[in-house]
Every structure is written in C-alpha cells, then in structure tokens.
Design brief:
This protein is of the alpha+beta class. 25% of the residues lie in helices and 21% in strands.
C-alpha cells in the first residue's frame, strides 16, 4: 500500500465551522478571567530568561495550586530580534485548575471523560477553511530571514546545557501506511536550520511515529510525511501526550474528551489532517534513510540527554493564524508542566485497566509519583483494607506491565496513607511491610526513560512492595481530630503563620483499639484521670516481666499469685 494511503473512515468535508470547544485563544481568555494568567509585557529573552523565570514556580517552594500560566507578549532573543508571536508557558498544566479549564468541565468529571474517550473516540469534522491557514509560507519564501523556523520564537528550555532552541509542546502527526490511521504524539524537535527540524521519538515509549518511520524505511520510501502542530485547542494537546493504542487516532480521542468532534483541515503540502484551530503548523518530510546527531537537551528524568543520532524533517510549509500564540512547556526536572499534563490523564487510565480490564475491584486509586521521579517510576496503589493478598499482588503485577516503561517501584498501600507524600510512603513501607515476605523483584524490565546504562545488558527490574495493613494496628499517635480542629481555630485566632496540614494531622484507629481505652482516654480529657487508678491497681501482677504487653498475657492465669521463693 502506498505511503500516503488515506483512512477509510473520513467524514465528508464541510465549510469552516466555529468550534464548540475552547481553542487556545478562548483558553487564554478563560485563564485570565480566572486569575490564572500572568502577562509579561517587558522584553524577555527567549534564549536565556523565559524558561528560567517560569521554572522558579516549580523549584521555588510554590504549591501547585499557586502556580500560574505566563503569557510573554514582548519576546526577544540573544541577537536582539523581536518576535510578533507571543509565547504561552505553563498555560496547559501549570496546575490542575488550568488543566480543568482547558477541558472545560468540572474536575471531578475528568477521570470518567478520559476513560470514555479512550473507549469511544469521536471522528473529527473536516473543514475546508481554517484559521491555521490564514498565513501560508512555502517554497523559497521559507529561506528568507524570519520566514522559516527562525521566525518562530521557540525558547531554549535549559539554558547552559541545550544546544539549540527546541520545539517542546510539539505534536507530530504522521500516518500508518497500512491502516491509514493517523498518530499524533508529543516529541521534541531541535531547530537546526530555517528548513530543518529534528525529531526525537524516545524509543523506550514505543511511539507510533517510529513505527510509521520503520515501515516506510523497510519498504524503500525515503520520506515520511509529517505535520508538527505548535499550539492547538487544549484537548488536542492533552490527547497527544498520552500513551494510547496505535489503533486510536489521538484527534478522535480529543473529540471524545471534549464531547464534540474536533475540526480538522487537510495540510497544504502533505496528505495529513491537522487541527483547524492550530496556531502554527510546520509541514514537511522526515528522512527515513539518514539520521544525524541531535541534543544535548535537558530531559524529564532529571538529567541532560547527551547526543544521539535521530531523525530530521525537511520543512515544506509553515502555516499559522494571523494572531498565533506559541505554546511552550516546562519539562525537564519534575514536578513540571510536562509531568502534570500526563499525570492527570494517565492515572484514570491505569485505574480503569486494573479495575475493569483485570477486574481487581479492591483498587480504589492509582497515584503516580511526580516530584523528581517523573510519574512513571513510582506507582502507588491504594487498596481496600480487606482486599485479599492475592488480589493485592495481582494489582501490583498489573500496574508493572501496563506500560513497558512504567512501574519500577510499585507500592500497595491503604487509603489512610497519602500517596503523594513520600514521607507517608516510607512510613507505610517501614512499618507495614516485612522485607522477607512483602517485597518481590520482577526482572527483565525495560529501563524506560532515563540516562542510558549498560549494566545488566541494559535490562532493569521492578520492585513490588506490599505495604498494606495485614493485621490490626494501634491508633496513630496524634490527638484525635476534634482536638486538632479546636487547636487549629485557636492557632488562627492568635494570628500565627498559615497552616498547611500534612497527612496524617490527627490520630485515628487502625483496628486495635477497644471501648475500654476510649473510656480511659475520655476520663483523662475531662481531668478525671485519677479515676482510672483503681482499675489499674486491680490488675496488678507479679509473675511477668517489665514491658510485657497486657494484651499478650493469658487473662485466665490467676491474679496476684504468691511470690516465688528466692532460694
């Protein structure tokens, strides 16, 4: 089949249609109205200042809810060039509220929407006229200064390490030569020349674009048609960053996520459909014969990725809106916008797999650890207290195999443990897991995204840890909730620094606690603790050692026996 075979399920084309979903301009307006946007009108150097400035809200101790989107309206570079395209950074997932605004629904509906979108995608609506074609640059015009890639204000993400500006929030669209199904994935692209853009697909994640590239290469086709979207309706970007089956077109999933078909238009120089409301689209052909060095570049696993041989694209067209906004994403060391934008959609897909595909109903939640580890390496499974041990282990095995690069550490916990708090996870592992009984190493795993290592033939392993409660434990040794809440009121009345409660912040029972203990504690809080003395005196013994637990003593043994002879 020819490399440009069209999909058999395309709807008929229509004239232009106003979308019922928010495009990027609607999204920016909504962010500003919600107080989630910071406009920066002073000159900002995209090569040295832009990303470091926004980076501070991820590395400066600012809570996620207080992070903002930044819109830079006066963009320059180190050569003094001024750009007419503003740049939006943090505008899609600096915090969960920004993400929610992009989906345009209550946050509590997002999990269900993701599951439904993956199960029942919506084909797009093809239009003939599109905002992304308001300006079209092709042919020799691309060779003129400011008309090619040098006219797009792509920033340097990690100044001091990166070798060039990179497209980071860039959706590469290609087509499967066998099925005609398009794939849209988010990959980085190094700017190399006015008409040459790199493409690094991170093979450990098995991206669809790489499979398309391999198929054409094996058949002797030297060029893979490609379109790169820089800025799109938020749901399009949200769909592009998720790892979905290659049989699914992410544009179809985006439509289902927002509840209405996405408008698409045929690209100008390649046989591909692109989002009609895209801000900027770069069209061209990826060489399947030659590779060339690409990087260094700061990566989301927290290290700089050194040079590798990777693909490159020869640009044949750049199309854009007249009022285009470029989106750039904060990635590299997590937490970041890049990790949060993946996490929000990935967690419900993991939970759906465990609960509905594998039928493990005792799993209540899946939490992917974000700070520094980049969401894939550490997975916490929140399990019901009475969940059988066999089901706990089946859930951990399932979490370790859903994605080839996810689940290096899988930890099962109960719902009293906050999975987002590493201290709480270590607490559960320290007191609820027996290393000889509750830890299993699963060998022969793909190392996934991270610095390359030749140890063990490049293979890694997964560690599964059952840190759930296997028996009743005594209560958490903090004051009960009502006393902590009353103390919080007094704290605030005194005008003391604002509290940020950390779980656990009050004591609760873990099963090993009887009514008699409640009675003793209640008397103590009333000031009647001396009334407890008589009952304690009645239980005196002389036949046991110091620190003997009362619960371990055989209550049937005679009380106050005569002292044994010391002869």
């Amino acid at each position: 089949m020819d490399a440009t075979t069209k999909s058999k399920r395309k709807p008929a084309a229509s004239s232009s249609a106003k979308p019922s979903y928010p495009d990027l301009h609607d999204h920016v307006a909504a962010l500003e109205k919600a107080g989630q946007l910071i406009r920066v009108d002073r000159p900002i150097n995209k090569d040295t200042e832009m990303h470091p400035l926004v980076r501070w809200q991820f590395r400066g101790g600012i809570e996620e809810k207080d992070r903002k989107a930044f819109l830079f309206t006066n963009v320059t570079d180190s050569k003094g060039r001024k750009y007419d395209i503003p740049v939006l950074v943090g505008g899609l997932a600096a915090n969960r509220e920004i993400y929610r605004i992009g989906v345009n629904c209550p946050f509590e509906e997002i999990d269900a929407r993701w599951v439904k979108a993956a199960q029942a995608p919506l084909p797009p609506n093809i239009v003939e006229n599109a905002p992304c074609h308001e300006i079209v640059i092709t042919g020799k015009e691309l060779d003129k200064p400011g008309k090619g890639l040098d006219g797009v204000p792509l920033p340097i993400s990690t100044p001091g390490w990166d070798s060039a500006p990179y497209a980071t929030l860039s959706q590469y669209i290609t087509k499967d030569p066998d099925t005609g199904v398009q794939n849209m994935g988010n990959y980085r692209g190094q700017v190399k020349a006015r008409r040459r853009l790199g493409m690094n697909p991170s093979l450990e994640l098995r991206p669809g674009i790489y499979n398309h590239w391999e198929k054409l290469r094996a058949r002797g086709f030297k060029k893979l048609p490609c379109a790169v979207v820089l800025g799109a309706p938020p749901v399009v970007t949200f769909a592009s960053v998720q790892k979905l089956p290659e049989t699914l077109d992410e544009l179809h999933v985006a439509g289902a996520l927002v509840g209405t078909p996405i408008n698409v238009v045929k690209a100008k120089t390649v046989d591909l459909l692109v989002p009609a409301e895209a801000e900027i689209v770069i069209e061209g052909f990826i060489d399947t014969e030659y590779l060339e060095p690409e990087a260094p570049f700061g990566e989301s696993h927290g290290h700089v990725n050194l040079q590798e041989f990777n693909a490159f694209m020869d640009v044949t067209a750049i199309t854009r809106r007249k009022d285009a906004i470029l989106t750039s994403i904060i990635s590299q060391v997590t937490p970041s916008e890049s990790s949060l934008i993946k996490l929000i959609g990935m967690e419900p897909l993991f939970l759906n797999f465990l609960r509905n595909t594998l039928g493990i109903k005792g799993v209540k939640r899946v939490s992917l650890h974000e700070p520094l580890t980049n969401i894939r390496k550490v997975i916490a499974l929140i399990c019901e207290r009475d969940m059988p041990a066999t089901e706990v282990w089946r859930a951990m095995y399932g979490a370790a195999v859903l994605h080839r690069a996810a689940g290096k550490f899988v930890i099962a916990i109960n719902d009293d443990i906050d999975p987002t708090n590493a201290d709480a996870l270590l607490w559960a592992m320290s007191y609820r897991a027996n290393a000889s009984l509750d830890i299993h190493v699963l060998p022969h795993r793909d190392p996934g995204h991270g610095p390359r290592s030749l140890r063990n033939g490049g293979q890694d392993a997964s560690v599964l840890i059952d840190a759930t409660l296997k028996e009743d434990f005594p209560p958490i040794s903090l004051p009960k909730r009502e006393y902590m809440e009353r103390a919080k009121q007094i704290w605030e009345e005194l005008g003391l620094p604002k509290l940020k409660p950390e779980s656990p912040w009050f004591g609760y029972s873990l099963g090993e606690w009887g009514q008699e203990f409640d009675a003793l504690a209640e008397r103590a809080t009333r000031g009647d603790y001396m009334d407890n003395a008589d009952s304690l005196e009645q239980r005196r013994r002389s036949d046991i050692g110091m620190n003997t637990e009362v619960r371990r003593v055989d209550e049937s043994a005679p009380k106050n026996p005569k002292p044994k002879s010391r002869k």
